[in-house]
Structures are given as C-alpha cells and as structure tokens.
Amino acid sequence: xxxxxxxxxxxxxxxxxxxxxxxxxxxxxxxxxxxxxxxxxxxxxxxxxxxxxxxxxxxxxxxxxxxxxxxxxxxxxxxxxxxxxxxxxxxxxxxxxxxxxxxxxxxxxxxxxxxxxxxxxxxxxxxxxxxxxxxxxxxxxxxxxxxxxxxxxxxxxxxxxxxxxxxxxxxxxxxxxxxxxxxxxxxxxxxxxxxxxxxxxxxxxxxxxxxxxxxxxxxxxxxxxxxxxxxxxxxxxxxxxxxxxxxxxxxxxxxxxxxxxxxxxxxxxxxxxxxxxxxxxxxxxxxxxxxxxxxxxxxxxxxxxxxxxxxxxxxxxxxxxxxxxxxxxxxxxxxxxxxxxxxxxxx
Length: 347
Description:
14 helices; alpha/beta
C-alpha cells in the first residue's frame, strides 16, 4: 500500500512544498496558498479500490495514511496564513467516499463501510476536538459494493477456476488468512508428529537436479526455495533440520506475505469430483501464471482428517470435504517441478 499509494503522493507533495515555499519566500503568498490548495483538491479526489475488501482493513489503513498527509497539507496552509482546518471543517476533505471496496460476503461489506466511517470520525475528533463534522455526518456514498469483483467484460464470471460441481472460496482479508493459517499449523503439527508421514515425505524429496530429471516426479527441493544437495548428505541434513517449530514459522511467513488464499471444494467426495477439482485448480493456476501471479499448495488443513472436518465447518460447508488450499500472490519465479508424460502414468 505504501509503495503504490502513499509514496507517489508524497513524491508529489515534496514538489508542491518546494514550489510553495519558493513562492512564499518571493512574497507571492496567495500563489503559494493556491499551489497547496490545488494539491489538497487533488488529494480529496483520489480513489482507492480494494476489489476484495473483506471487512475493510486495507481501506481503513489507506484512509489513515491519506489523512496524515492531509494534516501536513493543512498545516502548511496555516503557515502560509490560511486559517487552520478551514478546508476540513467546510467539508472539503479526504473522506470515505474516496475508498471503494467490493466484497462478496454481505456481512463483511457492511462492516467495511462502518469501519471507514469510524476511522474518519476518529480522525476528525482527534484533529478538531469537539467541533462537529460537516452535516450530514454519515452519508451513503455507496462506495462498498456487495458483489463478486471477478468479472469479465460482459459481467459474467470468467472461465478461470469455474467448473460445475466445484466451489472456490477466496480469502484476502488478513483476519481470514490468519484463520486459515491456524488450520495449516494444526495440520502441519499433526503431520510432523507422525513418523510415517515424515518418512514418506523424505522419500519423495529430490535433492539434486539429476535425480529429479531421472525420476520425473517427487518434490525437487529448489522448487520450494530449499538448497540443492548431494544425495549422500541430503537425507542426513533433512533429518537434522526438518523440525516442527521452524516449519510452522515458515508457513506463518509464507501465508502472511501472500495476497490471499483460495480453497477448492468438490460438491461430493468421489473420484469424479476430485478430477473436477483438479481441472478447476488447473484453470486457476494457468490464469494466475498468465497474470504473473505465483501460487503454492498449503494443503495441511485438508490432509489431516480431524483438521479437515473443522476446516469445513469454518468454511460454512460442514457436509463437504475441502480438497485444495492454495496461497497466491506476487513473488519471484521459482524452478518448476519436473513431471513425467501423461502416457507414462496412465494405467
């Protein structure tokens, strides 16, 4: 948010400050104030959109940061001889109408609108004391829309991830992602405590490129950012460093640095729907790759039966079997796992 919204605004603001002070030092006070007023007017018309806003946390922070910048603007106007706060008290100010959100969950959409107004009014009373804000205090800007933000040009859902018999839930709100993270940690902890799971995982690791090429399967270590190691030392090091606490910390860092999480759920738990889920994910992954968005599996919540049932209830789908959990976001490209030809694996 800071690099995309605040940094460009502050770069412009530094230029405006320099121009205004140059005019003021030359005795052109009105021109100096006009320069700052023009920047303030621009600031009050900028729009910020979160297309999956959840309960409005990102928009709230954007409002807070832009109000701080507005405070610097009105402070400079006061230094230049304009009455402090005059613009804000007149209703010409950064306010919730500039912060737009789209959210599929109706409850979260309502909360997002409320959160923005709470943030705006808190800032007003911190800045102006008991002075009343401009009337009406609360206005229906219709800036938070309760709908799906993923649309094609004709207003329909795009083909990516859409497949009959498969539901896909997307989570981008930090609180929701942390809730999914809790299930990931539960699942990962259970797997790490299971010697049979750890043994099977070790057998699937491909620690050097030559081995990965020969087998054409398994988990090539470089694909997950791990070092490439000789076969004679790799298993020993794996046994020494593969521990529950560091692995859980790794998943915390990975999920909290991701843009969001997608959960794929088949309508029924049978081979037909497992194939449908695979097709749905494949379409999602191909579209994400085309857009330069990385994705990775964090399937622990669906791989441990006891955690999976709790996860399904949290999703609001207690009678289903969640199939895939995928984190996604912007990241450097990693090496891809090698795979055998389809003809080599069909029975």
